[in-house]
Write a structure and sequence with these properties.
Number of strands: 2
Number of domains: 3
Order of helices and strands: HHHHHEEHH
Distance between the termini: 57 Å
Number of helices: 7
Radius of gyration: 28 Å
Length: 183
């Protein structure tokens, strides 16, 4: 049976163990993965790590976490060498990045929606009475063309091929844009 634990890089552990007499558990963890939770940090250590993510200054982070000003420089330096704190900081930064930064799929889906005209632009104006009004409309042809170009670059449909595959792909993109513009 293979260990169900994960390595630091996120890949699955490769350790295996044989169980005899059909007494194998549903899942098994090797000695390195006995616990499925992160190593426990004290509240001060977590506060330090969270402050460090914001300021990137070990001394200031140690002071804000509750360490004395006299010992803050040494405590901050010591905590940055602590592997558990390093792992906690790395994990928190990955969480923040995944929530903040668009994935490749999100970008490609958005470009496709713009190219097809299904994404709407909202123009805001004020009428004669001074009331705010909105007009929703599909993206302009210039923006749709730019989205098509970016998608074309991503899928390399503009590269030269001897078998006219590029022309077929380009015609498909243009036809889809024309159909969306007319429809």
């Amino acid at each position: 049976m293979r260990c169900v634990g994960l390595k630091k890089d996120g890949s699955r552990c490769t350790r295996e163990k044989e169980f005899k007499d059909g007494k194998a558990p549903k899942e098994w963890r090797c000695w390195q993965h006995l616990e499925n939770k992160e190593p426990s940090l004290t509240e001060k250590q977590k506060a330090f790590a969270d402050e460090y993510i914001i300021s990137l200054n070990a001394k200031e982070s140690a002071i804000k976490a509750g360490y004395s000003e006299d010992a803050a420089r040494q405590q901050g330096s010591r905590m940055l060498t602590n592997v558990n704190i390093q792992n906690y900081i790395e994990k928190r930064l990955k969480e923040k990045d995944s929530a903040r930064i668009a994935s490749q799929d999100e970008v490609l889906e958005y470009l496709t929606e713009v190219m097809r005209g299904s994404e709407e632009e909202i123009d805001v104006f004020f009428d004669k009475q001074g009331r705010e009004q909105e007009i929703r409309q599909p993206p302009k042809v210039r923006e749709r063309t730019k989205a098509a170009e970016l998608l074309g670059k991503r899928y390399a449909i503009f590269e030269h091929n001897d078998n006219n595959e590029t022309e077929d792909k380009l015609k498909t993109v243009i036809e889809a844009m024309e159909a969306a513009a007319n429809g």
